[in-house]
Design goal:
Layout: E1 5-16, E2 21-28, E3 34-38, H1 41-52, H2 61-71, E4 75-85, E5 88-97, E6 100-106, H3 108-118, E7 122-125, H4 126-134, H5 136-139, E8 150-152
Parallel strand pairs: 4-7
Antiparallel strand pairs: 1-2, 1-7, 1-8, 2-3, 4-5, 5-6
Length: 163
Amino acid sequence: MQKQYLDLTFKALAMDEIREVPFLVLEAKGNSTPLTLEIGLFEAHSILLGMEGFQQPAPLTHDLLADILLQTGWKPTGLYIQGLKLGQIHCQWKIQKGMRQKLVEIRPSDGVALSIRMGFPLFVSSEYFYHWEAQSQERNLLQTVLPQQVYLNPNPVSHATIP
């Protein structure tokens, strides 16, 4: 049986007021329960710069990786959040060059940072999403956020095609 995926939209970057931890807010198409993923401060900074379209004098790591991929002919076609693996969220980044495709392990925050810069779609395995959705304590993360600590994605893009 082939794994099923839900289309994700990156909605916002926010800060947990109590633990002072940044997190991503992702929304699955057709589902109002947001998927929240904790990330590091440096990754949050890079994502925020990407959201604002800010260009550094010298490229950040995400900008550099995007440039290298494009200059070598590789095109990202999607970020796939697979689920938990050894206590960490397991993600794969699908890249393509001509007829060749590769799956590359990547952290969720790096994948989202690159998606903001390069415009490729985000997906989550339906099995992981519905398991996560059932965990009520995860949903409480959004209750610790003050409105001034939420940075909305000005250009949320949903990709309806599921590979």
